[in-house]
User: What shape does this take?
Amino acid sequence: MITGLILLGSCSSQPPAATNSEDITATTIPKTTTTAPIPTTTKKRFENQIAVFILSEVQESLPGLQGIARVQYLRQKSEQFNRGVNNNLLSSKMLLEKNILDYLLISEDILLNSDSYASTLVALSSLGWKPETYEQKILEELSRIDQTIAMLASNTSNDEFNHHDHMSRVRKTSLYPEDTFNGRQNYLDRLSQEMVSAQANWYDTYNTYSPSELSILGEEGSTRSFHYSADGLVINLDQVKDLPAFELKCLAAFYGFPGLQSFVPRPEDSLRSFLNLPAYNLGWAGYILDEIGTRDLGNTLDYLYFARLQSSMALTDLKLHRTEWTSDEAVKYITENTPYASHRIRLLIRQIQQNPGYYAAAIGGKLKFSELKG
Assistant: This one.
């Protein structure tokens, strides 16, 4: 920005008196002309506007790109940002968005090109744990859950507690929807009501998180069990035995408020909506479910069954993708150690096979949240 200064003399009908150079003092003639410095606030505003423009282009274009085209575009935008923006003048929000952009590039590149399961775990979690560390921590978590289940469940019986027998008994005695259209619709209605109740019951405790606006849809003929996205929760209704009543409260808190749905960023606000980081969102949902389970004393076992399923899926993730288990061995393990039906378990294992590292990373995030709580 260049500023000019114009000096106007007073007007007179007579010409000015003659002068010579000696009569003019040195101070009346500027020796140099300088440009006024640009204020720092203006520079910051300018740099942040450039950053906003680049990031808005990413938000607009990224949803339509897949595979190598997606990685190439992210690399182009990251390099454009590095060349065109002074990071030292960015706001904390814009610095966070730049860090997310860089992380998106790294993680998408790894997920596309790496054959290493260990690298995939890093990309999906941002944790530096080796697969062996994951397995150790997951086994410790499974032991904790099993011991807590045994302690609570053995209080209801005088017999010696047997974990496998207990899970089989819960599976057989649980309530399930009627195997009719109305029965399935009633299940969806009950889950919707549980979503509302969870928000009402826990909002005072977790009021720093966004309320849930999750839509719930049923589908039939699908090869997946539960599918969550920011748009809604889609549930496979083929087999009513896949939908035990004890799970309803868990699903409501895990997928709704204060779980996954309370962490959904608005797309116009942040690149976070593009993060494929199950350690962050699923990890939080698993952690918060444990917190609620310890408070909802009348239903603690129900939350533990759901937590047992999540941790069992994480162990299966590790075992399958390191070729230590077959899919049949995985079905047997989860069936024996959780109260869920084999049909649903097979659907879940198919999802695990299609998403290496996803469920292990999710439990890694949950355990990291627990460690941070201390």
Observations:
- The longest helix spans residues 131-153.
- The CA atoms of residues 154 and 161 lie 6 Å apart.
- Residues 1-29 have pLDDT under 50 and may be disordered.
- The longest strand covers residues 232-236.
